Amino acid sequence: MRNYTIKKIQGAPDWSTIPVMPIDNQLWVEHVDITAQTQICWDDEAFYLRQEAVEANIRREESGPLAPVCDDSCLEFFIRPTERMDYFNIEINPNRAIYLGFGDCLPNLIRLQVPNVQELFDIQVEMTDKGWVLTYKVPFSFIRRFFPDFAPAEGSHFYGNTYKCGDATVHPHYIAWSPIDRYESTFHSPEQFGCLTFGGY
Predict the structure, then answer these.
(1) Using CA atoms, how far apart are residues 138 and 156, in angstroms rounded to an integer?
(2) Which of the listed residues 3, 41, 94, 196 has the most CB atoms within 10 Å of its CB?
(3) pLDDT one-digit tens code per residue, 47-56
(4) Domain segments of the chain: what residues?
(5) Mind listing the pLDDT tens digit for each residue in 23-35?
(6) Which CATH number fits domain 3-9+20-198: 2.60.40.1190, 2.40.30.60, 3.10.450.50, 1.10.3720.10?
(7) Per-residue three-class SS string for the chain
Protein backbone atom coordinates (compact mmCIF):
# COMPACT_ATOMS: atom_id res chain seq x y z
CA MET A 1 0.00 0.00 0.00
CA ARG A 2 1.33 3.39 -0.97
CA ASN A 3 0.97 6.54 1.14
CA TYR A 4 0.48 10.17 0.12
CA THR A 5 0.02 13.30 2.24
CA ILE A 6 -2.43 15.82 0.81
CA LYS A 7 -1.19 19.37 1.31
CA LYS A 8 -3.65 21.97 2.61
CA ILE A 9 -3.87 25.22 0.68
CA GLN A 10 -5.19 28.74 0.96
CA GLY A 11 -6.49 30.25 -2.24
CA ALA A 12 -5.93 28.79 -5.68
CA PRO A 13 -3.60 25.77 -5.91
CA ASP A 14 0.04 26.46 -6.76
CA TRP A 15 0.74 23.14 -8.44
CA SER A 16 4.50 23.74 -8.39
CA THR A 17 4.36 23.22 -4.61
CA ILE A 18 2.09 20.14 -4.55
CA PRO A 19 3.75 16.70 -4.26
CA VAL A 20 3.37 14.31 -7.20
CA MET A 21 1.77 10.85 -7.09
CA PRO A 22 3.40 8.91 -9.94
CA ILE A 23 0.98 6.63 -11.76
CA ASP A 24 3.62 4.05 -12.56
CA ASN A 25 2.36 0.52 -11.86
CA GLN A 26 1.53 -0.95 -15.28
CA LEU A 27 -0.90 -3.82 -14.94
CA TRP A 28 -2.24 -6.85 -16.84
CA VAL A 29 -1.05 -6.04 -20.37
CA GLU A 30 2.27 -5.41 -22.09
CA HIS A 31 3.96 -2.20 -20.96
CA VAL A 32 3.30 0.92 -23.02
CA ASP A 33 5.18 4.19 -23.49
CA ILE A 34 2.62 6.23 -21.53
CA THR A 35 3.26 8.05 -18.26
CA ALA A 36 0.94 9.88 -15.91
CA GLN A 37 0.81 11.55 -12.53
CA THR A 38 -1.66 13.05 -10.08
CA GLN A 39 -1.39 15.90 -7.58
CA ILE A 40 -3.97 16.48 -4.84
CA CYS A 41 -4.47 19.29 -2.35
CA TRP A 42 -7.34 20.40 -0.13
CA ASP A 43 -8.98 23.23 1.75
CA ASP A 44 -12.06 23.31 3.96
CA GLU A 45 -14.40 22.94 0.98
CA ALA A 46 -12.95 20.44 -1.50
CA PHE A 47 -10.18 18.30 -2.92
CA TYR A 48 -8.35 19.83 -5.89
CA LEU A 49 -6.69 17.55 -8.44
CA ARG A 50 -4.27 17.98 -11.29
CA GLN A 51 -3.67 14.93 -13.45
CA GLU A 52 -1.28 14.84 -16.37
CA ALA A 53 -0.81 12.19 -19.04
CA VAL A 54 2.03 11.94 -21.53
CA GLU A 55 0.75 9.85 -24.41
CA ALA A 56 0.56 9.82 -28.17
CA ASN A 57 -2.51 8.63 -30.11
CA ILE A 58 -5.00 10.20 -27.71
CA ARG A 59 -8.53 8.82 -28.09
CA ARG A 60 -11.37 11.23 -27.25
CA GLU A 61 -14.57 9.82 -28.75
CA GLU A 62 -16.97 9.75 -25.79
CA SER A 63 -18.88 12.86 -24.72
CA GLY A 64 -22.36 11.99 -23.47
CA PRO A 65 -23.68 11.51 -19.92
CA LEU A 66 -22.61 8.17 -18.46
CA ALA A 67 -20.43 7.49 -21.49
CA PRO A 68 -17.82 4.71 -21.15
CA VAL A 69 -14.93 7.17 -20.89
CA CYS A 70 -12.54 4.36 -19.90
CA ASP A 71 -12.57 3.37 -23.59
CA ASP A 72 -10.90 6.71 -24.33
CA SER A 73 -7.68 8.12 -23.00
CA CYS A 74 -8.82 8.44 -19.40
CA LEU A 75 -7.59 9.65 -16.02
CA GLU A 76 -9.26 8.39 -12.87
CA PHE A 77 -9.50 8.96 -9.11
CA PHE A 78 -11.19 6.49 -6.77
CA ILE A 79 -12.06 7.61 -3.21
CA ARG A 80 -12.95 5.41 -0.24
CA PRO A 81 -13.71 7.96 2.51
CA THR A 82 -14.06 5.56 5.47
CA GLU A 83 -13.07 2.08 6.66
CA ARG A 84 -16.12 0.74 4.81
CA MET A 85 -15.51 -0.57 1.31
CA ASP A 86 -17.89 1.92 -0.34
CA TYR A 87 -16.07 4.19 -2.77
CA PHE A 88 -16.57 6.71 -5.57
CA ASN A 89 -14.97 6.26 -8.97
CA ILE A 90 -14.33 9.42 -10.97
CA GLU A 91 -13.28 8.86 -14.58
CA ILE A 92 -12.69 11.74 -17.02
CA ASN A 93 -11.55 11.89 -20.65
CA PRO A 94 -10.10 14.78 -22.71
CA ASN A 95 -13.63 15.87 -23.75
CA ARG A 96 -14.42 16.63 -20.08
CA ALA A 97 -16.88 13.72 -20.15
CA ILE A 98 -17.13 12.26 -16.67
CA TYR A 99 -18.27 8.90 -15.39
CA LEU A 100 -19.22 8.86 -11.71
CA GLY A 101 -19.97 5.70 -9.81
CA PHE A 102 -20.59 4.60 -6.23
CA GLY A 103 -20.53 1.16 -4.65
CA ASP A 104 -18.41 -1.39 -2.80
CA CYS A 105 -17.34 -3.42 -5.86
CA LEU A 106 -17.80 -3.35 -9.61
CA PRO A 107 -20.90 -5.63 -9.71
CA ASN A 108 -22.66 -3.36 -7.17
CA LEU A 109 -21.59 -0.08 -8.74
CA ILE A 110 -24.32 2.54 -9.16
CA ARG A 111 -23.90 5.09 -11.94
CA LEU A 112 -24.42 8.64 -10.76
CA GLN A 113 -25.82 11.30 -13.06
CA VAL A 114 -25.25 14.70 -11.43
CA PRO A 115 -26.77 17.80 -13.09
CA ASN A 116 -24.15 20.26 -14.37
CA VAL A 117 -21.39 18.04 -13.06
CA GLN A 118 -18.69 19.66 -15.26
CA GLU A 119 -19.43 22.98 -13.56
CA LEU A 120 -19.86 21.48 -10.06
CA PHE A 121 -16.45 19.80 -10.36
CA ASP A 122 -14.97 22.70 -12.40
CA ILE A 123 -13.47 20.25 -14.92
CA GLN A 124 -10.79 21.80 -17.13
CA VAL A 125 -8.68 20.10 -19.81
CA GLU A 126 -5.62 21.42 -21.59
CA MET A 127 -4.13 19.59 -24.56
CA THR A 128 -0.34 19.79 -24.77
CA ASP A 129 2.28 18.79 -27.31
CA LYS A 130 3.00 15.70 -25.19
CA GLY A 131 -0.49 14.73 -24.03
CA TRP A 132 -3.10 16.40 -21.83
CA VAL A 133 -3.63 17.94 -18.42
CA LEU A 134 -6.83 17.62 -16.37
CA THR A 135 -7.76 19.78 -13.37
CA TYR A 136 -10.91 19.60 -11.26
CA LYS A 137 -12.22 19.65 -7.72
CA VAL A 138 -14.35 17.27 -5.65
CA PRO A 139 -16.55 19.29 -3.28
CA PHE A 140 -16.88 17.83 0.20
CA SER A 141 -20.58 18.67 -0.02
CA PHE A 142 -20.82 16.03 -2.76
CA ILE A 143 -19.08 13.40 -0.63
CA ARG A 144 -21.33 14.20 2.33
CA ARG A 145 -24.41 13.28 0.30
CA PHE A 146 -23.24 9.69 0.81
CA PHE A 147 -21.06 10.06 3.94
CA PRO A 148 -22.74 12.73 6.12
CA ASP A 149 -20.06 12.42 8.81
CA PHE A 150 -17.14 13.01 6.45
CA ALA A 151 -15.04 15.62 8.29
CA PRO A 152 -11.52 16.20 6.92
CA ALA A 153 -8.98 17.21 9.55
CA GLU A 154 -5.21 17.46 9.57
CA GLY A 155 -3.76 14.06 10.42
CA SER A 156 -6.87 12.06 9.50
CA HIS A 157 -6.82 9.70 6.57
CA PHE A 158 -8.91 7.87 4.01
CA TYR A 159 -8.18 5.56 1.09
CA GLY A 160 -7.93 5.95 -2.65
CA ASN A 161 -6.13 5.23 -5.88
CA THR A 162 -5.49 7.06 -9.10
CA TYR A 163 -5.21 5.56 -12.55
CA LYS A 164 -4.50 6.03 -16.26
CA CYS A 165 -6.24 3.77 -18.76
CA GLY A 166 -7.50 3.52 -22.30
CA ASP A 167 -9.42 0.36 -23.12
CA ALA A 168 -9.99 1.14 -26.81
CA THR A 169 -6.90 3.22 -27.53
CA VAL A 170 -4.24 2.20 -30.04
CA HIS A 171 -2.26 0.78 -27.12
CA PRO A 172 -4.67 -0.38 -24.38
CA HIS A 173 -3.19 0.27 -20.96
CA TYR A 174 -3.98 0.06 -17.25
CA ILE A 175 -1.66 1.99 -14.93
CA ALA A 176 -2.12 2.61 -11.19
CA TRP A 177 -0.50 4.67 -8.44
CA SER A 178 -0.99 2.07 -5.69
CA PRO A 179 -0.35 -1.51 -6.86
CA ILE A 180 -3.21 -3.94 -7.39
CA ASP A 181 -2.23 -7.49 -6.55
CA ARG A 182 -4.89 -9.51 -8.33
CA TYR A 183 -5.12 -11.29 -11.65
CA GLU A 184 -8.54 -9.94 -12.58
CA SER A 185 -8.12 -6.79 -14.63
CA THR A 186 -10.13 -4.23 -12.67
CA PHE A 187 -9.30 -1.01 -10.87
CA HIS A 188 -12.30 -1.63 -8.60
CA SER A 189 -10.27 -3.06 -5.71
CA PRO A 190 -11.10 -0.86 -2.68
CA GLU A 191 -9.35 -3.22 -0.30
CA GLN A 192 -6.07 -2.41 -2.08
CA PHE A 193 -6.36 1.37 -2.27
CA GLY A 194 -3.48 3.44 -0.93
CA CYS A 195 -3.61 5.58 2.22
CA LEU A 196 -4.22 9.32 1.80
CA THR A 197 -3.55 11.58 4.79
CA PHE A 198 -4.79 15.14 5.25
CA GLY A 199 -1.71 17.29 5.77
CA GLY A 200 -1.21 20.88 6.84
CA TYR A 201 -0.07 23.99 5.03
Answers:
(1) 18
(2) 196
(3) 999 999 999 9
(4) 3-9+20-198
(5) 999 999 999 999 9
(6) 2.60.40.1190
(7) CCEEEEEECCCCCCHHHCCCEEECEECCCCCCCCEEEEEEEECCCEEEEEEEEECCCCCCCCCCCCCCHHHCCEEEEEEECCCCCCEEEEEECCCCCEEEEEECCHHHCEEECCCCHHHHCCCEEEECCCEEEEEEEEEHHHHCCCCCCCCCCCCCEEEEEEEEECCCCCCCCEEECCCCCCCCCCCCCHHHCEEEEECCC
Model confidence at 82, pLDDT cuts 50, 70, 90, reads very high
Main-chain phi, psi angles of 108, to 5 degrees: -100, 10
**52-89 residues labelled b (16+ CB within 10 A) or e (exposed):** bbebeebbbebeeeebbbbbbbbbbbbbbbeeeebbbb
Q: Which pLDDT score is estimated for 183?
A: 66
- Which pLDDT belongs to residue 32? 94
Q: In angstroms, rounded to a whole number, what is the distance separating the alpha carbons of residues 180 and 190?
A: 10
